[in-house]
Each structure stands twice: as C-alpha cells, then as structure tokens.
Write a structure and sequence with these properties.
By secondary structure, the protein is α/β, with parallel strands linked by helices. About 30% of the residues lie in helices and about 25% in strands. About 30% of the residues are buried. About 5% of the residues have low confidence.
Length: about 375
C-alpha cells in the first residue's frame, strides 16, 4: 500500500495542525508494479465496470481477496459440483407448459413491464463499449465521415447516449431500436435525444422489414449487447437474417452476452427452466446462456444449415444446392465472418464476506463479407 505523507506545523495562535498529503507518484513503483496489481492511486488500474476483458490473472501464491475481481479464472471444483447439482434440480422442475406458452407468446409485454417498473435507473451506462470495440471509437472521431450505427435492443439508452456524448463526428447517425414501446418512450424522453443525431424506433430483430428510417444494406455497425439471450432459440435464424439485411457489405457486428455457467444461470431455482440453458426470470423476461461453439455456428451459418437440412429431410424435400441447403433465404446464405469470439470468465470477490462469485460472458466481433453479400 502507498504510504501517506504528513507534515505538522504550529500556527501563530499556538494551535498544532497536521496536513495529510496524497501519496506521491513514485516512478520506481510505477516501473515495478503493473497497473492492474497496484494499490498506488497514481498507478493503479481503476475499472468501474466488470464487463471488460482484463489482464489480472490469479497466480499461485496470490491472495484471492486482495482485489475485487480476477480475470479469466476457471471455476474451481466446488463451484462445478454446485452448478451440476443446480442444473439437475432445474431439469427436475421446469416451467409448466402453461407458463411456457404465457411467457413465450408475448415477450415484448414483459419487457414493457420491466421498463415501466425500472425506467432509466436499472442499467449502468455502458461507457466500456468503445474500449472493447475500437470500431466505435473510429466512427465517432472527428472527420470520420458519414457513418451509421444501429443498436438493437437499445433499452433505455444506456449505450446510445454514452456514444452520443463522446461523438465528435458530425456525420454520424445513431439508430436505437427495441421491441419494447416503453423503452423507446424513455429514449425519446431523454434530454439528449435529438433526431438529427439519433432516431429511436420500435422494432423486432426477427422482423422481415428493416427498422423505420433504415435502408437495407446501409448500416456500418450493429450493436447487440445482451440482446440475443432474450430470444428463443427458434428465433435465432430470423434474427441473424435481420442483422444481415440492414448491414452494408463489410459492415460489422459488436456482440456481448451471457455465457454458459454464469453464476446467474447456476442460481436459478425450480420453475424457471424453459428449455436447455433458457430461463424465465422473476420479472417474466427470458434469458439464454451461450457456449462459444454454439455462437460460432449461429453466426457462421452452420446452425441454420443443419436446421434446414433436418427440415428438408423430415419433409422429404430435396435441398436447393445438391445436398447442402445452407441457411438459405432464397438462394442466399447469410454467413458472417468471425473476426473474434471469446469467453470472458471473471471471478468477483466479496472481500468482507470472503465470497467468490464466478461470472461468464461471451463477446464476439463479426463481419458481413464484402463479396457474396446480396440482400436477403
């Protein structure tokens, strides 16, 4: 720990006073202690949000409770055993057929209720996005030129407005869409809402049409942050199609969502499991927890290929391309290039209660190919 300097002086009236000085920024200390392990306020790495890939690895001999979080930590055997027991209990007591239909029939209804109850005070502003996805910084730089960003599942604007606040590009247009009417009302009612810079519209990612005001093949970047997990697995193909439709050739997708084995999943009690890795929260909203390979197959088109092949086989219908139907919409296959895809495992620590909490997120960066990128 950095030591505090103090000086003691006697005033003209005889009173003794002590002045505490902030710790000095010692050059030698900065050189020998990495920022992510330093307690020196002049040198340490202050990160206010957990959703950021980091470099603080837990090594043999480290005190687990020295810091509030450790990066890329594999859960221990005790946690694994606890998780398996929880999964078994969840499978024994799934959601009833009645509730499954009730929650799947009108998902927007439950998100409307969520935003009625929580308004703008539930989620923190996602200021970390530009660190994780540098393309956002590139598009918001002064003189970057004409560009457009579409955030799908914009919620109350906790991503859109931080981007606008840091934007220096006069030619940037930000579209914010959500299938919750209440969420869009909250964005439109925000003091920073200006339709010259941002347009908020109600839109479902599985729709056959692009959002109002957005032309097909016109968007540079699509943001999907904790959005895909709210969809039923039966909606994934349509959602990928919707993203493909709005992106221009070479356009990119910035993706962040929940990973399999996250503490949130493990903690679910009985009566919450809709189907494998897909749950209903207490507020009626749905959440799915992804595996890395599963996401890869969703975005590179292989999952849709397998589904179409299975459907064709069940109907005894010949495929359109010699036995390899692909994720076709017409004769086209919306398969994205996987620029990066990874799992962010983090151990959060409650130092006071001596508790370890294992979190898991997935993060990806995908691109619509420049060639063979005909509209669907």
């Amino acid at each position: 720990m950095a030591l505090l300097d103090s000086t003691t002086s006697t005033g003209a009236n005889g009173h003794i006073s002590t002045t505490i000085k902030a710790p000095s920024c010692n050059v030698e200390h900065r050189a020998h202690v990495p920022a992510h392990r330093s307690h020196n306020p002049c040198n340490n790495l202050k990160r206010s949000d957990p959703f950021k890939f980091g470099s603080r690895y837990l090594q043999e001999g480290d005190d687990v409770y020295e810091f509030n979080a450790w990066d890329h930590v594999t859960p221990d055997e005790a946690y694994f055993a606890y998780a398996q027991a929880q999964y078994a209990a969840q499978r024994e007591h799934p959601v009833s057929d009645y509730d499954k239909h009730r929650f799947n029939a009108e998902p927007a209804k439950w998100w409307n209720r969520f935003y009625c109850n929580n308004t703008t005070n539930f989620f923190k502003n996602r200021k970390w996005l530009q660190q994780e996805f540098p393309i956002l910084s590139d598009l918001t730089k002064k003189g970057a030129g004409k560009a457009s960003i579409l955030e799908i599942g914009a919620g109350a604007g906790n991503t859109a407005f931080p981007i606008l606040a840091s934007n220096e590009n006069d030619d940037l247009m930000l579209y914010a869409c959500d299938f919750s009417k209440k969420a869009i009302e909250l964005i439109r009612g925000h003091e920073a809402y200006d339709e010259r810079r941002i347009r908020a519209e109600v839109w479902d990612i599985t729709s056959d049409e692009p959002p109002p005001g957005v032309e097909e093949g016109s968007v540079d970047v699509v943001l999907l942050v904790f959005v895909f997990s709210a969809l039923s697995p039966t909606q994934w193909d349509a959602a990928v199609k919707g993203v493909w439709r709005v992106l221009k050739p070479g356009g990119e997708v910035c993706f962040r969502d929940y990973g399999r084995g996250d503490l949130t999943q493990v903690r679910f009690k009985k009566g919450r499991l809709l189907e494998d890795s897909f749950y209903i929260r207490g507020d009626g909203t749905r959440v799915y927890f992804f595996e890395e390979e599963e996401l890869k197959s969703i975005w590179n088109g292989k999952l849709a290929t397998m589904r179409q092949s299975a459907k064709a086989a069940a109907l005894n219908v010949p495929t359109t391309d010699g036995g390899n139907p692909g994720p076709s919409f017409g004769d086209h296959k919306p398969a994205f290039d996987i620029l990066s895809l990874g799992v962010d495992r983090r151990m959060l620590v409650n130092r006071q209660k001596q508790l370890k909490m294992y979190r898991c997120w997935t993060q990806g960066h995908f691109r619509k190919p420049v060639t063979n990128a005909a509209p669907v």
